[in-house]
Amino acid sequence: MTLRGRLALRAAAAAAWASQKAGRGKGSMIGGLIALKIDPTLLQQLGRGRRTVVVTGTNGKSTTNRMTAAALATLGEVATQTDGANMDAGIVAALTARVDAPLAALEVDELHVPHVCDAVDPETVVLLNLSRDQLDRVGEINMIERKLRAGLERHPDAIVVANCDDVLVTSVAYDCKNVVWVAAGGGWASDSVSCPRTGEPIVWDGPNWRSTGSDFARPTPDWRLDDDNLHGPGGLVIPMKLTLPGKANRGNAAQAVAAAVAMGANAEDAVAAASAVDEVAGRYSTVQVGPHAVHLLLAKNPAGWQEALSMIDHSVDGLVIAVNGQVPDGEDLSWLWDVRFEHFEGVKVVAAGERGTDLAVRLTYAGVEHTLDHDPMRAIASCPPGRVEVLANYTAFRDLNTSIAKENKRDV
Question: Where is the Mur ligase central domain (predicted)?
């Protein structure tokens, strides 16, 4: 570390301490921001000498990164985020928290991947999926594909663990020399109807796909899933039963295991570690709120919402869907019309959040009987006592967790 780098770390520690004393949270983000202002090269210094995995994609970054970190922990101490902070300040905070850890698993926002990779020189890059997400912030999805492809060209020796069921991800990794292909699934194909390289239509034949205008096609996977097992190279078959729900999380786990194995982990140990992950920064957790056992799910874009809706237990006593439209969520909520909500007969549904009215209109057109209460806590309280599923987008999820924590603290 340079003298300026050490000064930046001391300033970050002081800022975190002040934030905690003021009751404003752990202070890791403000510490990271201040540290980078003092020394813009800090990320490169902190990443030097570590064996690092970078995890990116539109959906599943936090979950896959958590599983990857768990699997890598079978090899040694791992520096990683615990709160989903996937831009520079959050990454610096994670690396600062475990300066001496020889391994790192870093969740990275798609737009930040090229320069983060340039700074930390990852040994492995995990590419999950690419789909439309917050167009007012992220931009057009084929542009993201081109930026990621160009970024990986600067790291030709990196091992790339890529989902071959996703057309755009396959295009990013297609020219890389060290690719581990994983059939991780791709339930959302609405953003991959044309070849990102030629513009020609993509034709599907069962799980396989190909471009009509070139030899660009789905590669043969090195790792694949069935309902009970993870299949790997050389005829490897490992039973895999996850704690987390959903088909998408099985795909996330497959890529996490493939990345850990590429880094030298034992496959069986990696599967066991990834399977034991039971919550990710509050996601998938169940908390008691008065007479309600509240199961919390997070979704942030059409593909994520469609997958999260498939995890809803229709035997629950209530379903609260909370939507905000703040900058971190994307202020344009027209994507609500791309999500299929028509599956909740017999379930009490409550629309909530700052943009609850927009959601209520969408639910009306979907034929879903519902009520409207903009306050998610009141929406939960309006449900019959028992189990309540809550599906929320980013700031709605964040604010609800804060409200629940305050409510339960008052009850203690």
Answer: 55-258
Query: Catalytic: 332?
Result: yes
- Reported as a single tens digit per residue, the pLDDT across 165-198 is 999 999 999 999 999 999 998 766 677 788 998 8
- DSSP letter string, 251-317: HHHHHHHHHHHHTT--HHHHHHHHHT---BTTBT-EEEETTEEEEEEE--SHHHHHHHHHT--TTSS
pLDDT at position 32, please? 83
**Residue 11 host element (H or E):** helix 3-21
Q: How far is the C-alpha of 331 from the C-alpha of 394, rounded, in Å? A: 12
Whole-number Cα distances in Å, 251 to 42, 104, 182, 224, 248? 33, 21, 8, 9, 5
Among the listed residues 133, 226, 332, 411, the single catalytic one is 332
- Residues paired with residue 225 on neighbouring β-strands, in sequence order: 230
Intervals of the chain under pLDDT 50 = none
pTM tops 0.90: no
Strand 103-107 with 371-372, pairing: unpaired
With both helix axes pointing from N to C terminus, report the angle between 28-38 and 88-97 in degrees, rounded to the nearest 10: 100
What gap in Å lies between CA 337 and CA 291, rounded to an integer? 33
Is residue 210 within 8 A of residue 217, CB to CB? The reply is: yes
Find out whether 377 and 353 touch, Cβ atoms under 8 Å: no
Give the integer Cα–Cα distance in Å for 26 and 20.
5
